[in-house]
């Protein structure tokens, strides 16, 4: 019987295993997960801290027992320490028995994700945590409750930093956010991120730019600016490193620590597939540009593709990503897709900005929405889009992203029929206005 081993049992791994079982009832599937938990919603964890997720149990989808019922064998606390791609075997370290054994596969699916980067200045302090796996959530919540935490220091301002800041604040904890340079949340343009500063001021979050922790002294943090601040809880959110060291001797190609994959989800070795935060792929609309998309949508999409590939349907392939993403920070939402600002600068383009109300201006709760698109001078495709506002940001980024994904140019946006009624949009929505403005701008190029 064909045997598939899956490395990593959370977003990519658990989903790929489930999809494969759905498509093929006979294949043998084993998931190895090095930690305690499998198949949980990492994305919901910040919201458990703040109370929007009320039940811890609702964060978990499948348990090893439920998988067992579907004839999928899950081994938690089992770490793959090496892959021998010539022999089609993996070396497995069983943490419980402190023993090592070898297992063999016909196909290997890698979804090992990443690990949070550690900051040397704080990593050994007992009050330092990062929020990455479900057990981290438990440690953080327990620590807050046991120590009656009322203040916290948040290091880093990526999307997890923002979400954790919001949710700690909602829990009544006063947050000081530290950013080592002078721009927070670099995923959005520096001249569009003003809403983040506004939200921090409104919500009583203290932001210190160009500031790092030099060292921790008991319950205090000594900062690079010489200040000593209360730091009974420190949470770091400074990015992830792909968990691919165990592949070093495997003959699987790695680039910058990431696993490049082809349209089938295959690595350079035919019977080894990969997905999730540890893979390198390319943009769908600019295929010559590579990307790592450490987000849940791509992991789920590739799980479906790889499962179909292994189940024998080779027609379902991966066409690249747009990197569509959105984050909520208190009342504000920020979304982007496409190339980074740095990468977009290498391609001849022009930009179009449109600021208008998200719904009919006479509605009392209409609020501003700001869209910027970067348009390829050659193709008219939107290379990058950024959207900032309160309500309606999700709709606009999704329309722009779907339009681009299906090959639509910026000029076609004038024909996008937005569902209109005053509480939702305007007869000429911000999306349409981007199209009209782009046509005008292109005439002057
Ligand atoms: C707090 C938080 C909030 C997030 N919010 C969002 C969001 O709002 N939107 C969004 O799109 N994405 C979000 N993400 C990102 C999203 O969760 C990831 O993109 C997704 O989980 C990636 O799936 P993965 O399978 O690659 O990695 P993971 O889900 O991290 O799973 C990898 C698993 O592999 C295991 N593993 C690693 N190496 C080995 C080994 N050698 N042997 C055995 N097991 C191994 C790891 O222990 C881990 O459990 C969030 C992530 C976090 C942490």
Automatic annotation (TrEMBL):
- E.C. number(s) listed in UniProt: 1.8.1.14
Co-factor requirement: FAD
Per UniProt, residues of the FAD/NAD(P)-binding domain are 3-287
Keyword Flavoprotein set for record? yes
Question: Domain Pyridine nucleotide-disulphide oxidoreductase dimerisation, which positions?
Answer: 326-425
Q: Does the keyword Flavoprotein apply?
A: yes
Q: Which GO terms describe its molecular function?
A: CoA-disulfide reductase (NADPH) activity
- Per the similarity annotation, which family is this? Belongs to the class-III pyridine nucleotide-disulfide oxidoreductase family.
Name recorded for this polypeptide: CoA-disulfide reductase
**To which species is this protein native?**
Jeotgalicoccus nanhaiensis
């Amino acid at each position: 019987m064909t045997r598939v081993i899956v490395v990593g049992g959370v977003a990519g791994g658990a989903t790929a295993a489930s999809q494969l079982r759905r498509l093929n009832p006979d294949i043998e599937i084993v998931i190895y997960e090095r930690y305690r938990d499998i198949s949980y919603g990492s994305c919901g964890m910040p919201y458990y801290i703040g109370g929007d997720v009320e039940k811890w149990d609702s964060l978990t989808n499948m348990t090893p027992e439920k998988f067992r019922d579907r004839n999928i064998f899950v081994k938690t606390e089992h770490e793959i320490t090496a892959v021998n791609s010539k022999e089609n075997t993996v070396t497995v370290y069983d943490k419980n028995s402190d023993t090592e054994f070898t297992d063999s596969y016909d196909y290997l699916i890698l979804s090992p994700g990443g690990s949070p980067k550690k900051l040397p200045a704080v990593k050994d302090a007992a009050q330092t945590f990062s929020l990455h796996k479900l057990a981290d959530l438990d440690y953080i919540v327990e620590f807050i409750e046991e120590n009656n935490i009322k203040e916290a220091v948040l290091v880093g301002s990526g999307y997890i930093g923002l979400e954790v800041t919001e949710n700690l604040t909602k829990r009544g904890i006063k947050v000081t956010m530290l950013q080592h340079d002078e721009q927070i949340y670099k995923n959005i343009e520096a001249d569009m991120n003003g809403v983040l500063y506004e939200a921090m001021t409104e919500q009583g979050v203290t932001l210190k730019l160009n500031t790092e922790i030099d060292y921790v002294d008991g319950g205090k943090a000594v900062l690079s600016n010489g200040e000593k601040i209360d730091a009974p809880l420190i949470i770091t959110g400074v990015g992830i490193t792909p968990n691919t060291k165990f592949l070093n001797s495997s003959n699987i190609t790695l680039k910058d620590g990431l696993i490049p994959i082809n349209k089938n989800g295959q690595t350079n070795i035919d019977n080894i597939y990969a997905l999730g935060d540890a893979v390198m792929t390319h943009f769908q609309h600019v295929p010559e540009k590579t990307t790592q998309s450490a987000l849940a949508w791509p992991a789920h999409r590739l799980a479906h593709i790889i499962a179909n590939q292994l189940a024998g349907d080779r027609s379902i392939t991966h066409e690249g990503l747009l990197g569509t993403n959105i984050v909520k920070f208190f009342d504000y939402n920020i979304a982007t897709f496409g190339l980074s600002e740095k990468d977009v600068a290498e391609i001849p383009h022009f930009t179009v900005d449109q600021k208008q109300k998200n719904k009919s201006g006479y509605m009392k709760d209409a609020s501003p929405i700001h869209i910027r698109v970067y348009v390829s001078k050659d193709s008219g495709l939107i290379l990058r889009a950024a959207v900032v506002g309160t309500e309606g940001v999700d709709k606009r980024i999704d329309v722009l992203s779907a339009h681009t994904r299906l090959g639509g140019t910026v000029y076609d946006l004038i024909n996008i029929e937005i569902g209109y009624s005053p509480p939702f949009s305007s007869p000429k929505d911000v999306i349409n206005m981007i199209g009209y403005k782009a046509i005008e701008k292109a005439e002057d190029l």
